[in-house]
Amino acid sequence: MTDPISSEKHGDVQIIWSDNPPVNALGAAVRQGLVREIEAAEADDSVQAVVIACKGRTFFAGADISEFGKPPVMPWLPDVVDRIENCTKPVVAAIHGTALGGGCEVALGCHYRVAVPSAKLGFPEVNLGLLPGAGGTQRGPRVAGVELALQMATTGKPISASQAHDAGLVDRIIEGDLIEHAVAYADEVKDIRPLPKSSERDDKVTDVDPAIFDEYKKNNAKLFRGDVAPQANLDTIKAATEMPFDKGVMFERQKFMELMAGQQARARQYFFFAERKAAKIDGVDDSVQPRDIKRVGVIGAGTMGGGISMNFLSAGIPVTIVEMNQDALDRGTGIMLKNYQSTAKKGRMTEEQVGQAMGLLKPSLNFDDLSECDLIIEAVYENMDVKKEIFTRLDGIAKDGAILASNTSYLDINEIASVTKRPEDVVGLHFFSPANIMKLLEVVRGDKTADDVLVTAMKLAKTIRKVAVVAGVCYGFIGNRMLIPRQLQAEKLLLEGATPQQVDKVHVEFGMPMGPFQMADLAGVDIGWHRDPERIESIRDALCAIDRWGQKKGAGFYDYDDNRRPSPSEKVQEIIDDFAAKHGVEKREISDQEIIERTLYTMVNEGAKILEEGKAQRASDIDVVWIYGYGWPVYKGGPMYWADSEGLDTIVEGLKRQEERLGDDWSYSQLLLDKAEAGEKFTR
Question: For residue 484, is it within any domain?
Answer without folding.
Answer: no
